[in-house]
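User: For this week's homework, look closely at the record that follows, marking any run of repeated tokens, and judge whether sequence predicts the tokens.
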Amino acid sequence: MNKMTKLLLAVGLMMTATLAMAHPGHGEQVSNGFLSGLLHPMMGLDHLLAMGAIGFWSIRQNTTMKRGTPLFVVGGMIAGASLAWAGVSLAGVETGIAMSVLLVGVLIATLAKLPTAVGGTLVALFMVAHGYAHGTEMTQGSSLLLYMAGFVVATLAITFSGRGLGTMMLKADNRITRALGGVVAIIGGVLAAG
């Protein structure tokens, strides 16, 4: 199997998990929290698209931004989840999640290159909304550390899958990349409107 086939297979399996599980509350069958945290980012198209698209977009950024993106993603996720666990109320989280998908799609479609300070801040803010959602949906009685470890592993896997696809697309016609970004942006717009 070549790299592209493996990557497409991995993305397909993640999408299948999304369709099969349909963003459940992860039930009491997962008592330790790790599996619950691991599965949660893969349960919603919004999470998959945002994290994968951020990884995809980061490949065309400057070296510092490219290397720092996984840290910005995880840092934002942990910050958002921590806010939820601390009982801080954030308004518009679902809208923020949908807008992150839309805006990352626009960044891809326009082949936008941002300075690290701007790009890193934007990525971290996007992920605060996603992390907050993960934090509020943690199964009661789960180990906080195991749940967090699970969603960090899943988040990195999705982000690096996006980076892998982005790396392969560097050699492709930019119109394909722009079209993919447009599709992501449209899906984000639909999510924001719904």
The helical segments are 3-21, 34-39, 45-58, 63-85, 93-109, 116-136, 144-169, 174-193. Residues 9 and 15 are 10 Å apart (CA to CA). Residues 11-31 have pLDDT under 50 and may be disordered. The radius of gyration is 16 Å.
